[in-house]
Write a structure and sequence with these properties.
The complex is a heterodimer of chains A (451) and B (373).
Chain A (H helix, E strand, L loop, with lengths): L17 H6 L4 H8 L2 H11 L11 H6 L9 E7 L8 H8 L1 H15 L1 E8 L6 H14 L15 E6 L9 H8 L23 E5 H13 L1 H6 L1 E2 L2 E2 L2 E7 L5 E5 L5 H6 L13 E5 L8 E2 H5 L11 H4 L3 H4 L7 E6 L4 H15 L5 H18 L5 H14 L7 H25 L3 H4 L18
Parallel strand pairs in A: 1-2, 1-4, 2-3, 7-11
Antiparallel strand pairs in A: 5-6, 7-8, 9-10, 9-11
Chain B lengths: L2 H5 L4 E6 L2 E6 L4 H8 L25 E6 L12 E2 L9 E4 L4 H16 L15 H9 L22 E3 L9 H9 L6 E3 L6 E3 L13 H5 L5 E3 L12 E6 L10 E7 L2 E7 L20 H6 L7 E5 L2 E2 L12 E2 L5 H5 L9 H4 L18 H4 L2
Parallel strand pairs in B: 1-5, 14-15
Antiparallel strand pairs in B: 1-2, 3-4, 3-5, 6-9, 7-8, 10-11, 10-13, 11-12
The chains are: A alpha/beta (451), B alpha+beta (373).
């Protein structure tokens, strides 16, 4: 049984409401934090080694210390709740079932950063959650935890919930800021970074929901204590949203010390593959990160057991590794078709490209059309190389990371599952009737003996 | 009085682009530094427009490799950067045409721009002065690998003067910035997103602003063309002539380029500089022209003619011109450090042609007598 920090009160009846949350020790951390100095809170977060939970894994304390603090210019904290990555639903779970934990985190972070007006940019499809959050905000205000001069500390804070209009691109921090300003959600050119010129050209920090929530246990237990949980640079706990062909899909809190195998097959977490099938592949961190075949998922190329943490998951780079990303853990069993899966993702990125820069706007649609041909048995062998060429020319050449996110899944699918693509081309009729199956994707990898 | 501001000059940064060094004021972008060197070293641009605020960064044709960040921090930049939006640092080293990575990425961008372009150059009014045409001649491939139906849009009428061919658009956003920054009321913007994003006038409003005609000049392709010139002539058959008039509109500079054939004025545009942008007037302002000058004044008597316009010799418009062409500087020998080996040097095999005779100095069509002097 791992450590539970964010979901410690999971299952407590009425934890959604202020009274129950307060009875279970809620807002005591905020009381503690408001007596600390702002620099001390930032220092605690730095010490905790907390890494951004939105996908990139950038150290939060460092991000906070980059925030410019010019005289007389308001600063803002913006919470990125535009969780649109296919396969990721941890933020929704937090906001829906633990809204007060989230608001307490927002209050502490706003205090640390000096943000008097804090915004929560929430995904448009989460239509029922703004009501939950607004109710929680009203309760917190009534209890004196929001508004003017909170707990006599002289700090004012208001939290506004802003609903997006359902665009994936608005999860990119500068596009989110543009959208929040009321403009078209196009990513901005960087530099300047939001820490210097963000919302309304004011210094802004954009953080993920889970990151904000994790600030509460960090301040409660101290940064050093928090850093002891987990391994290496993967400190604290991480929410994983497990889905796909598993017995128990859902949101799980892990302390990053367990292995991938344990996470998938133990009854505490995913509970194994559904219907007794075998594991074929997995996307460990949301649709943008490279897909891994079963053998590379459970063991690294060096033959070590792959663990559920940032370092181990990215062991081997993109050639044989992946990323923990935003924690959308998608499991595919032996009956799944990788070509179809990749096509679905390509269709998603084609639909969600903002259309601002040429490689992403034109390239994502092209990749989708080629993958559609391959999937429906009209492909050619040269199409596979063409796909590789297209993704190579999109990656790294775009304004925002959406171009990379669109090309990585395609690249990884071709890198690891090229046989399946070729089988689709060579057996166009058969590929419409049955799937390629598990083939050799779970076979142990030969590891050369080290001298 | 703030003496600090008066005393301190903008520091000069030394930047090396393709082995050629230049000193530029701090805050200059890599692209503008390269343009100061000129010639082949300047990266091509499709969306950046120095006269429009916030333009650039979108087309990705001007990507360059930064092999040394600066004197203080010599690490190379991990990705290719958009030279139009990246400012130089002191001691920065940039690779443009000397970098394989850049040329490959640029080839990719050209391919991406062309997959949904209709390639209807034979019936397009922009042909001959089209940036995309020039770009694909230089960086594109002869055949496409795209096998699907090209994206098309329904035709939209945006008023009596300007015709919009959305199919040809490459989404450079230049016209959006022009409409935003030059006119008082914005009726022009981007609708939809991704590969079905399109330029539109919201709720089909006709564009009625005095300066909206300038979107034709900024458009790098044939998406926005002059309806009064539509299908009248190919640009390379007309003669560009510089002219001016006293325009009553205070914001209009009145200095234009007439595109004539005989005594007939076919088209009026703003004057363009060597980068295909509207020329900067001597007072430092961009030479935007008003709709009246552009669309209404199509008589020779409306204008005071100054003389033939300077046209780059590499442009197809220069065909048939013997005066008023200018040579683009060739820097390839400097960049690669030796004379390039041409596969075919016309001077080696032709008895008629003589390199020492400058063709632009010859008045009228060249005659064999000109080479026998």
């Amino acid at each position: 049984m791992g450590v539970k920090l964010l979901l410690a009160n999971d299952g407590v009846e009425g934890i959604r409401y202020y009274d129950t949350y307060r009875k279970n020790g809620g807002y005591t951390t905020a009381e503690k934090a408001l007596k600390m100095s702002q620099a001390d809170i930032v220092e605690e977060v730095k010490k905790s080694g907390l890494r951004g939970r939105g996908g990139a894994g950038f150290p939060t304390g460092m991000k906070w210390s980059f925030l410019a603090k010019p005289e007389g210019v308001p600063r803002h904290l913006v919470c990125n709740a535009d969780e649109s990555e296919p396969g990721t639903f941890k933020d929704r779970y937090l906001m829906e079932f633990h809204p007060h934990l989230f608001i307490e985190g927002l209050l502490i972070s706003s205090f640390a950063l000096g943000s008097n007006r804090t915004y929560v940019y929430i995904r448009g499809e989460y239509s029922w959650i703004p009501d939950i959050l607004n109710q929680a905000i009203a309760e917190a205000r009534n209890a004196g935890f929001l508004g003017k001069n909170i707990l006599g500390s002289g700090f004012d804070c208001e939290i506004y919930v802003h609903r997006g209009a359902g665009a994936y691109i608005c999860g990119e921090e500068t596009a989110l800021i543009e959208s929040l300003e009321g403009k078209r959600g196009n990513p901005r050119m960087k530099p300047p970074f939001p820490a210097i010129q963000g919302l309304w050209m004011r210094p802004t920090v954009v953080n993920n929901v889970e990151t904000i929530a994790a600030v509460v246990p960090i301040i409660a237990m101290g940064g050093d204590e928090y850093a002891k949980i987990g391994v290496g640079k993967s400190t604290g706990t991480k929410l994983m949203s497990a889905c796909g062909n598993i017995n128990k899909p859902g949101v799980y809190e892990i302390d990053m010390t367990i292995s991938v195998e344990e996470f998938i097959f133990s009854d505490e977490y995913c509970g194994g593959i559904k219907n007794g099938k075998r594991l074929k592949a997995c996307i460990p961190g949301g649709s943008s990160v490279p897909i891994l075949p079963a053998n590379l998922l459970l063991k690294t190329a060096k033959g070590e057991t792959r663990m559920m943490n940032y370092e181990s998951m990215s062991d081997g780079g993109f050639a044989t590794g992946s990323m923990i990303g935003s924690g959308g853990f998608e499991v595919l069993d032996e009956d799944q078709c990788i070509v179809k899966h990749t096509m679905t993702l390509a269709r998603f990125y084609n639909h969600e490209s903002c259309g601002q820069c040429s490689p992403c706007r034109e390239g994502t649609g092209w990749m989708y059309k080629i993958l559609k041909n391959l999937e429906y048995g009209h492909g050619k062998l040269s199409d596979i190389d063409l796909l590789w060429d297209i993704q190579r020319r999109i990656e790294g050449n775009t304004i925002c990371p959406l171009g990379d996110a669109a090309s990585w899944p395609v690249a990884a699918a071709i890198r690891h599952f090229r046989d399946e693509f070729e089988w689709h081309v060579k057996n166009p009729e058969e590929s419409q009737k049955r799937n390629y199956g598990l083939a050799h994707y779970a076979d142990p990898i030969h590891v050369a003996a080290t001298a | 009085m703030n003496f600090d501001l008066v005393m301190s000059e903008t520091p000069k940064f030394k930047v090396t682009i393709d082995t050629i060094s230049v000193e530029v004021p701090a805050g200059t972008t890599i692209l503008n530094a390269a343009r100061m060197i000129g010639g082949d070293v300047a990266p091509p641009t499709m969306c950046y427009y120095s006269k429009l605020k916030d333009s650039g960064g979108k087309c990705r044709t001007c990507l360059v490799e930064v092999s040394k960040g600066s004197e203080k921090d010599p690490r190379p930049m991990p990705k290719l950067v958009a030279s139009c939006r990246t400012t130089v640092m002191d001691g920065m080293e940039v690779k443009n045409i000397t970098s394989e990575k850049v040329l490959d990425a640029r080839k990719g961008v050209v391919e991406f721009l062309l997959i949904n372009h209709p390639l209807d150059c034979p019936v397009c009014d922009q042909a001959g002065e089209c940036d995309l045409q020039n770009l694909s001649y230089e960086h594109g491939t002869e055949a496409t690998r795209y096998e699907f139906k090209r994206r098309t849009f329904e035709k939209e009428d945006i008023g009596p003067y300007i015709s919009l061919h959305m199919n040809r658009c490459i989404m450079c956003f230049r016209c959006v910035f022009t409409a935003d920054q030059l006119t008082e009321k914005r009726e022009h913007g981007i609708l939809e997103r991704g590969d079905h994003a399109q330029i539109g006038t919201y709720l089909n409003k006709a564009l009625k602003n005095d300066f909206i005609g300038n979107v034709i000049d900024v458009c790098p392709v044939g998406a926005l063309t002059d309806k009064t010139f539509r299908f009248k002539n190919r640009v390379w058959f007309t003669k560009p002539v510089d002219a001016h008039r006293n325009c009553s509109n205070p914001k209009c500079c009145g200095h234009v380029r007439l595109w004539m054939r005989g005594d007939e004025v076919f088209r009026v545009t703003a004057r363009k500089d060597e980068w295909g942008e509207v020329e900067t007037r001597p007072d430092g302002t961009p030479g935007w022209i008003c709709n009246e000058c552009r669309f209404e004044k199509k008589q020779t008597k409306d204008w005071v003619i100054e003389g033939p316009a300077l046209i780059p010799r590499s442009s197809v418009i220069a065909q048939g011109h013997y005066v008023g062409t200018k040579k683009t500087p060739v820097l390839i020998d400097k960049v690669i450090g030796k004379e390039p080996q041409y596969q075919l040097n016309i001077h080696d095999i032709s008895d008629v042609n003589k390199p020492e005779i400058e063709l632009s100095k010859i008045a009228g069509p060249a005659h064999s007598d000109d080479f026998n002097k």
